[in-house]
Amino acid sequence: MDSYKKLLLANKAWVQDRISIRPDYFEVMAKDQTPEFLWIGCSDSRVPAEDITGTEPGELFVHRNVANLVIHTDFNMLSVLQYAVEVLKVKHVIVCGHYGCGGVQNAMSRKHLGLINKWLRHIKDVYRFHARELETIKDEGQRLRRLVELNVAEQVQNLAETSFVQRAWLTEQRPEVHGWVYDMQTGYLKEIAHMSPGTHLEPIYEFEFNDKTGNGQS
Ligand code: CO
Questions:
Q1: Checking CA distances to 91, which of 22, 58, 134, 175 falls within 20 to 30 Å?
Q2: The domain 32-205 is classified under which CATH number: 3.40.1050.10, 1.10.443.10, 3.40.50.720, 3.40.50.12780?
Q3: How far is the CA of 76 from the centre of ligand 1 (A)?
Q4: Using alpha carbons only, what angle is made at residue 47 by residues 43 and 50, rounded to the nearest 5 degrees?
């Protein structure tokens, strides 16, 4: 059997399974979504957001890209963030990296892999910001693990630098922003960084909003 056919068969079994537990499962699910969490994770196939957090459909609003980056010119990520924060009104934004991340690993090397290098260059910047600390770590595996953690912490910072998050902090005292790392070898999540609403950034990154509602502003 073609491997993709297995997915379609599994889908049929999954539908039956859900209906057997709750006959109106899909009816209820199709009505609306009110997720409490925005998850920004890596595209890596081994880090399935719902599975590792024990969440069900409807609980996580998800954005994934290579190495879970928050880039302030990425309209894809920004659209997801704006919608999650301003329309869905999520209470938590979680950036989740993972040890053994190929994106971070390649960024730490000098390999040229084509277009992806332009994306990964943001991680090389993270390396440069923390070069002094990273270069005291002699073991390459340990250095990579630390860069994965620092990369997550930087993305938490990047989120706090967005106008969407700052405005929601100011007007609605949410969302909490979390940075986690998933350890594929143990299955556990590790908390790396956390920012509560109202955390002050370096002044250069703090916006002064002209009006408290911010309607029409991005
Ligand atoms: Co990864």
A1: 22
A2: 3.40.1050.10
A3: 18
A4: 105
